[in-house]
């Protein structure tokens, strides 16, 4: 079996402000093989890396990303809410993260945020950006909006997609195959060894989220999952030792 890929969830977000380069660098420093990020669109149609639809929680600003321009977003402090030593961290553009990933030859999981706010053309824009950096092989595109994932495959079948879900799902590999997804990305609490094995036997890989405790990482290791999405890459790295 190939080694399990460890993805820093929004970077090493237990240790640095999520979805900033401080968090991404910390994840790599801790031994993560890749990072997981979230993408929205700004008022002027730039691809913005932030988890929430609004900037209120993770910056010193207020408002919806869809109502802010790139210039307004780049003025915000995305670090001091977490700790004053991170003051001055900025919200990244997807292009900036893609450059970071390419320079380090790591894996990238892009979560499309498309609902409850829907961004026209976000799938096409993400595909175009990833192509421009020649990172299709390094990238998985995931979403809770499975219409977006199906659309990605319609745009370019070379892209790997992962269905995000929280509720327990019966035969998730069948559903994944139906919409052309290469991966399932379940909440780790909803799966068992049988689901992992049957998914893999049917050509669907399993990346679980969000695994932060040693005992949970050990359980996922026993299930032989393909990837772990974690806020604490150091904990998972010690368990998987890869």
From TrEMBL:
Database matches in PROSITE patterns: GP_PDE
Occurrences of domain GP-PDE (ranges): 4-240
SUPFAM superfamilies: PLC-like phosphodiesterases (SSF51695)
GO BP of this protein: lipid metabolic process
Gene3D superfamilies (UniProt xref): Phosphatidylinositol (PI) phosphodiesterase
Molecular function GO labels: phosphoric diester hydrolase activity
Protein name: Glycerophosphoryl diester phosphodiesterase
Organism the protein comes from: Keratinibaculum paraultunense
């Amino acid at each position: 079996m190939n080694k399990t890929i460890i993805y820093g969830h929004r970077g090493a977000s237990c240790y640095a402000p999520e979805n900033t380069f401080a968090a991404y660098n910390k994840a790599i420093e801790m031994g993560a093989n890749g990072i997981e990020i979230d993408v929205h669109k700004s008022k002027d149609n730039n691809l913005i890396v932030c988890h929430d639809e609004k900037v209120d929680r993770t910056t010193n600003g207020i408002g919806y990303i869809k109502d802010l321009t790139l210039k307004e977003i780049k003025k915000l402090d995305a670090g001091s809410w977490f700790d004053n030593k991170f003051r001055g961290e900025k919200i990244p553009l997807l292009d900036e993260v893609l450059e970071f990933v390419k320079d380090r030859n790591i894996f990238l999981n892009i979560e499309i945020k498309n609902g409850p706010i829907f961004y026209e053309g976000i799938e096409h824009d993400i595909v175009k950006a990833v192509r421009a950096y020649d990172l299709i092989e390094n990238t998985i595109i995931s979403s809770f909006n499975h219409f977006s994932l199906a659309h990605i495959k319609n745009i370019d079948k070379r892209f790997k997609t992962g269905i995000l879900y929280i509720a327990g799902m019966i035969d998730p590999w069948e559903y994944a195959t139906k919409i052309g997804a290469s991966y399932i990305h379940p909440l780790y609490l909803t799966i068992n060894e049988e689901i992992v094995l049957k998914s893999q036997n049917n050509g669907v890989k399993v990346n679980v989220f969000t695994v932060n405790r040693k005992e949970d990482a050990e359980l996922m290791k026993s299930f032989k999952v393909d990837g772990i999405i974690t806020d604490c890459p150091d904990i998972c790295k010690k368990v998987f030792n890869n």
